[in-house]
Amino acid sequence: MRKIISFMHISLDGYVAGPNGEMDWIKVDEEIFDHVGKRIGEGDTALYGRVTYQMMESYWPTAADKPTASQHDIEHSKWYKEVHKVVLSKTMEAEGLDNTTIISDNLSDSINEIRQQEGEDILLFGSPTATHSLMQLNLIDGYWLFVNPIILGQGIPLFAGIKDKIKLKLLTTRQFASGVTELNYTVER
């Protein structure tokens, strides 16, 4: 069965965005882009909530076409166009969306159906609301966290609405020159 891995930037105090959804505190640079690019390049399915999907869709399909496109933009744009996208949304419709599946109900059954298909890990990008929904259904198999050296004090927490303990096993860590620390966990079942 394919695994769902949540990929998230977080603050040291566990927030994924500021109180108004701001993410201007997230540190990304070429070192992080290169590291992340190698990992996601192996993936064939990206999972998003509606808001994150719309943000990605507004940038990545044409990012490589810009005259100032970086190597990261070119590579990620190519990957984004090829990867199968799954979007959790009660309001979007799949009509006219290329290589995209919309899940609007029966979340557990629909996700498990996708997990049964052939393929690589399913990478859940950002999307705190979608992440919270999948956490509550115990559908996340791992957390790939990039801890940013900042304390926000308030905002949108990563771990919200958890009723039962989730035991994790640390697989790898990595410190980046920017001060960001990668923590890669698997969920122990």
What keyword list fits this structure?
single chain; 189 residues; alpha/beta; Dihydrofolate Reductase, subunit A; eight-stranded mixed sheet; two-stranded antiparallel sheet; 5 helices; 10 strands; 26% helix; 28% strand; globular
Could you give the topology of this structure?
Blueprint: E1 4-11, E2 15-17, H1 30-40, E3 45-49, H2 50-57, H3 71-82, E4 84-88, E5 100-103, H4 107-116, E6 122-125, H5 128-136, E7 142-148, E8 156-157, E9 168-175, E10 181-187
Parallel strand pairs: 1-6, 1-7, 3-4, 3-6, 4-5
Antiparallel strand pairs: 2-8, 7-10, 9-10
Helix pairs in contact: 1-3
Would you mind describing this structure in some detail?
The chain has 189 residues and is an alpha/beta fold. The chain has a single domain, classed as 3-Layer(aba) Sandwich (Dihydrofolate Reductase, subunit A). Helices cover 26% and strands 28% of the residues. The chain contains five helices and ten strands, in the order E-E-H-E-H-H-E-E-H-E-H-E-E-E-E. It has helices at 30-40, 50-57, 71-82, 107-116, 128-136, and strands at 4-11, 15-17, 45-49, 84-88, 100-103, 122-125, 142-148, 156-157, 168-175, 181-187. The strands form two sheets. Strands 5-4-3-6-1-7-10-9 form an eight-stranded mixed β-sheet, sandwiched between helices. Strands 2-8 form a two-stranded antiparallel ribbon. A hairpin with a 5-residue loop joins strand 9 and strand 10 (181-187). Helix 1 (30-40) packs parallel to helix 3 (71-82). The longest helix is centred in the middle third of the chain and has 12 residues, at 71-82. The two termini are 14 Å apart.
